[in-house]
Amino acid sequence: MQVLKFGGTSVASAENIRKSLAIVATAAERGPVVMVVSALGGTTDALIGAGRAAAAGDAGYRDTLLQLAARHRTAVQELLPATHSGPEGQLVSQFGEITSLCNGIFALGELSTRTLDKLMSYGELLSSHLIAAVAKVQGQATVWADARQLIRTNSRFGMAEVDMATTQKQVADFKTQNPAKIWVVPGFIAADAHGTTTTLGRGGSDYTAAILAAALDAEKLEIWTDVSGMMTADPRLVRSARPIAHISYQEAMELSHFGAKVLYPPTIQPVMQRGIPLWIKNTFAPDEYGTLVEVEPPRTPAVVQGISSIGNLTLLNLEGSGMVGIPGFSKRLFEALARERINVILITQSSSEHSICVGVNTPDAAPAQVAVDEEFATEIAAGRIEPLRPEKDLAIVALVGENMKNHPGISGKLFGALGQNGVNIRAIAQGASEKNISTVIRAADVRKAINVLHEAFFEATKKQVNLFILGPGNVGSKLLEQLARQQAHLLEKLGLQVRVVAIANSRHCLVDENGLDLTAWPEELAQAPAQTLEEFTQLIIARNLRNSIFVDVTANPAAAGIYANLLAKSVAIVACNKVAASSEYAHYARLKSLSKEFNASYLFETNVGAALPIIGTLNDLTRSGDVVQRMEAVLSGTLNFVFNNYDGTRPYAEVVRQAQAEGYTEPDPRLDLSGSDVARKILILAREAGQVMEMADIEIETFLPPACLEGDVEAFYTQMAAHESHFKALYDAATAAGKRLKFVARYADGHAAVGLQTVAPGHDLYDLRGKDNVVLFYTDRYADQPLVVKGAGAGAEVTASGVFADIIRAARL
Ligand SMILES: NC(=O)C1=CN([C@@H]2O[C@H](COP(=O)(O)OP(=O)(O)OC[C@H]3O[C@@H](n4cnc5c(N)ncnc54)[C@H](O)[C@@H]3O)[C@@H](O)[C@H]2O)C=CC1
Ligand SMILES: N[C@@H](CC=O)C(=O)O
User: Fold this and answer.
1) C-alpha torsion sign, points 476, 480, 482, 487
2) 342: alpha, beta or left, given left = phi > 0 and alpha = psi -120 to 50?
3) What is the ipTM for the molecules in this complex?
4) Is residue 558 lining ligand 1, measured as CB closer than 6 Å?
5) Is 610 a pocket residue for ligand 1 (Cβ < 6 Å)?
6) Is there a catalytic annotation at residue 681?
7) Each residue of 684-729: pLDDT tens digit?
8) Domains located in the chain, CATH noted
9) Candidate list 136, 435, 448, 681, residue with the active-site label
């Protein structure tokens, strides 16, 4: 025999019932079929709601029942010809019984578990009678089989336990007396020794099917549902989750216990005992393979089969020095919990024996606390142990797979992936069978954690990266253009799915968690809602997306002020904004240490020389043990451009304006002309070389007449124009000596200075074209001939490409 079970969605409407019956008809061509059915989707909840309302004295239960009756009537009318009045009459009589039952509950103001079982049983009774009638009309040799006469349980209403021996006999008797090809059986319900209706727990229709399959020693059990099998993770949380084709009973049991709701956990035991294959199939896509649960699934290279989670968990910590080395504490703890019928989901104990930690469903936490504190009242009073400490809002995320056994590195990878994303693990449990590694984490981190783990274990070729971009000005908009152009390349060549989740300027913020359209953002941003920087920070933290990177393409000090907060949440920072790296040393050092502590990159290569590999080269030198003795550099693209293009034929101010128009200057060009920007850069280099230095330690010799730095940017240009003769004199003097003007930064022996110099032909800095930068590193290894990095040192396009490169570095960590 074959047992096929159809869940609530598979029988939720006339159309779905037809689909389910078509599947049964095909199966019946191969041999007899037991069709176990759930109630029409949503019916059980409606019945419970009606019962509870009636018990609470709320007459609204009558409306619920009327709606339920109407829904069933519609199904009958759609499925059966008008001439076939039997089922409709039966419906009337069944709803009469339901109404009487609810009226009784209303009158008594009480709903016992026994009455609730009776009330809930009508859901499956209604659906199974209807479906049996339709099958008969379709010409199938069908019999309706009352599960209450087949499955015997004890009288634990709500979650009755099955008496398998009696059940087996009753099923065998029924089979002898009913040779029909198709049995239609209501799932979920059974009866105790007195014939009183019981239920097998929510989801119990799966269990009914498994019990019948075992009792009949069926050739297979098929669970027909609305998804194509067990998935590698909950598809509502992980978009790239995929069905698992083959899985062992043990693995299926682990996964179903841990939230893979496609299968009611007790279902596996009866079929596993007899080695009956269990298929999970999709009623709405019957040709899809689904999941086959069997004794020995074909071996796959997959070490981890699935990732599952259970929410609503509370950890209870029993802790105290009085526990160490004294036998019996755990026994008393578990007995106290068992007395209250509290199910323990997870247990961990450290080898110091100083604490035992158990995980329970959150609704059980309060009674558990009372029970345990009572049990240990004497020890608590004596200060030998602490009162029980519940910790709420937690969840379990577990890796499941038989191949994890003896496979080193799985837990390392698990912890690494979670740690890199700032997911703190509160407790861990792994049985010696190594089929399941469970971690307890904050409920708020579940989505991120499952995605991170899914990526680590199932998507070796793809990593999703989520960008939050602040300040799409010159550099930022070029960056967005480059990202848009390279998205396909990144996915194909580097396996990086780079999504821009948010773009904000100082007024608006545009967000799409699925990734913004990078061609339409300028118009959309202008229409987007207003948002403050604080709100933007909270948005990044609250979204809690894996592999999040904050990209700061502003020049704003307040923006630099949010890095610490974000790093502490394991959000990586990529900045071309130089404010943070050139702020007080203590702050710079704190950001570096947060970056290490929380495994989040803090990258700012573009702070010096735009996209030139200057900081990276310096880091490579120092990390490999080299020591920087001195540095000599031209670090201002703007000033190099200005002095390369000024010869007195055009006003100096006009050349500066051109540098600004071409995107080389800071948003405030006075920073470039005053030498401050170069001072920030040599400060950053000195710090990266290992020197503890402040901005005040840098000697800045400005060549600007003081009047140029008074007032705003327009006044600055006006004053430069007014002091044209000053700039001309500087130029003429240099030219007369056969030299060129270069604004040079120097560092040696812990001292740094910046200022204008004239350099002669042959000097390393003499031939520096356009807006180029150059750095000469003199180190222990490069003592005579410096290591030189040279090239374009300013401009939106190159800077954006440097930011892009930092994003890729952060993403690939
Ligand atoms: N232009 C270049 O060659 C290089 C620039 N950089 C750095 O790149 C950064 C950006 O430069 P540009 O793009 O030229 O400047 P920009 O002025 O064109 O763009 C900055 C953007 O940031 C926005 N912004 C300012 N404060 C904000 C806030 N609180 N919240 C949100 N958005 C805010 C502005 O509205 C503007 O859209 C600067 O820090 C600069 O030092 C670094 C290396 C080279
Ligand atoms: N304004 C800077 C550009 C980036 O740092 C410069 O001119 O060098």
Assistant:
1) positive
2) beta
3) 0.97
4) yes
5) yes
6) yes
7) 999 999 999 999 999 999 999 999 999 999 999 999 999 999 999 9
8) 2-41+125-226 (3.40.1160.10), 306-458 (3.30.2130.10), 468-601 (3.40.50.720), 614-794 (3.30.360.10)
9) 681
